[in-house]
Amino acid sequence: MTAVVAVGAQWGDEGKGKIVDWLAQKAELVVRFQGGNNAGHTLIVDGRKTVLHLVPSGILQPGTINLIGPGVVVDPKVLMDEIDEITQQGALRDPSRLRLSGRAHVITEWHRCLDQAREEAREVPIGTTGRGIGPTYEDKVARRGIRVADLLDGPSLCQALERLAKEKNFELRERHGWPEIPVARVFDELFELGRRLEPYVERSAQFLDQALREGRHVLFEGAQGTFLDIDHGTYPFVTSSNVVAGAVCAGAGVGPTRIDQVLGITKAYATRVGAGPFPTEDEGPGGRRLGARGDEFGATTGRKRRCGWLDLVSLREAAIVNGFTSLALNKLDVLSGFEEIPLALNWRIDGKLCSDFPMTLAEIERAEPVYEMLPGWREELSELRAFAALPDNARRYVERIEALVDVPVDLISVGPGRDQTICRRAPFQ
Q1: Are the CB atoms for 412 and 385 separated by under 8 Å?
Q2: Would the N or C end of the chain have less CB density within 10 A of its end CB?
């Protein structure tokens, strides 16, 4: 048995979709354990680009089963549209390859509208995607949410929606001046979507337990990244769920004793979408060059990503809170052509050198990176498939990261395609 968790080590957009798709060649079950359609995983296979928001990234591997766990919040329309698209592409000929927890909470039209209305009303926007993720998690914790299984029972669904409507329509109307949303419209949409999703609904904990007992290779796929975690991220510029590896246990329904490895996924540089502190951001020519070479636009929002240099203060913190056993280093090829590559070893805050991630947002906002300048390389890397074939300075860059984070780099991505991956040690061996 091998159970591997793959989690983002930065602010999301680390290329988790590509790495999970590559790992899924050996995995028999891929499990999504948190988040919603506010995240997008981009997969490029045989030159064809597929962007997934809710369906796990193992769906393009024939024979791999994909499970959406109870910790995910699901917009049924988005999920059904995604299912229709991948079915038309021929990637989901067998519906049993996609399973959906009946305990996953449901995003409604009220949640989407409130998310957008609240963001418009904020003096300092958080940068939410407006997909309704936060309000849905809010209702989950307040014990008034609607779950996937509820969509299959018409009378119960109607009663739940009527209760929800009183509060949601009041806030939309009185606080934001938005029109009320009719209960009947929401019911008709959700009940029909529930009928279409019913063949995919599963008792997820039992399903996952059976797979582990049978010794199957299981891959747990996270969304967003460590520093968007509600507890460990740059609060309040974070998402509404726990993103770190420990969230697998609650979000998928599996005990911690069943996890064998934790793979942290990071870019060879750093990016961030939306507001929030970003100490190593480069707003000059270097950052613009990273953005252009790396095609840095959000897969879900299309927003331009802020770009900067790899930050080892953050990466060491991510290794601590996730318990990384190895790293996957994405987009090393993007750094080709730089004469020198800055690597942030520490931060300086109010004149004091800091190697540990601080507790307050204000400290992070005042942080100034302390860089070590490493020599760059000119060679293109996209055709290389062995670590020994990398230019000397590219190898030294990887080895320096390993030494300073004290975690081995097992996978290196040198291009967006599935095959453009250097494997030093495979998680599923």
Answers
A1: no
A2: C
